[in-house]
Design goal:
Helices cover 19% and strands 38% of the residues. By secondary structure, the protein is an alpha+beta fold. The chain has a single domain, classed as Jelly Rolls (Sandwich). The strands form three sheets. It has a seven-stranded mixed beta sheet with strand order 1-2-3-4-11-6-9. A three-stranded antiparallel beta sheet has the order 8-7-10, covered by helices on one side. A two-stranded antiparallel ribbon has the order 5-12. Strand 3 and strand 4 form a beta hairpin. The chain is globular. The N and C termini lie far apart (47 Å).
């Protein structure tokens, strides 16, 4: 495996594979880094036209609401449970997908084909999922919501997540 930083690793195998060793690897590395996440890229380069990643998120991880220009992405939950929350451009919730692994009885796969803002609210201590999207990776194609705090502002992100939890509860109750 090739380490890019504490959160991102790339396989160096032309025949990429995922088993219990890879799941254990992303879990352990997610717990060990500051942003509480880790991804193992199964594609060989950021320039590849197809990107497939094994991603681990710890419950404390904050994913700033974002959308992707000119990209589709799919998510397949392998372990754990998460609410995938969608927003309009003003930051109002438009949809919530309650997702979990196959055994949970919840949705375990979705594909996002439009540039909708979205984030994750983890419902278990950790979520492991397989994400697929088109490449190459071009950072400016990810647009972060101006109405949500940046990831480095701990106080603001905790307050935002608390408000979001309340909004999600009210949205579900409707």
């Amino acid at each position: 495996m090739k380490k890019i930083n504490d959160e991102v690793y790339y396989t160096e195998r032309a025949l990429a594979r995922v088993g219990t060793d890879e799941i254990t690897f992303v879990k352990q590395h997610a717990f060990m880094n500051a942003r509480q996440r880790c991804r193992l890229c199964m594609h060989l380069s950021p320039d590849d036209l197809l990107h497939e990643m094994l991603i681990a998120l710890c419950k404390q991880s904050y994913i700033r609401p974002h959308k992707h220009q000119n990209k589709a992405e799919s998510l397949h939950i392998i372990d754990g449970e998460v609410d995938l929350v969608f927003f309009n451009d003003e930051g109002e919730i438009t949809e919530i997908l309650s997702m979990g692994d196959y055994r949970s009885g919840k949705l375990f796969f979705c594909r996002i084909s439009e540039p909708w803002y979205h984030t994750f609210l983890l419902r278990t201590e950790m979520v492991i999922f397989h994400e697929t999207t088109t490449g190459p990776f071009i950072r400016p194609q990810t647009i972060f919501a101006t109405w949500a705090p940046e990831e480095g502002d701990t106080k603001a992100t905790l307050a935002y997540v608390d408000r979001l939890e309340d909004q999600v509860s009210r949205f579900i109750a409707i």
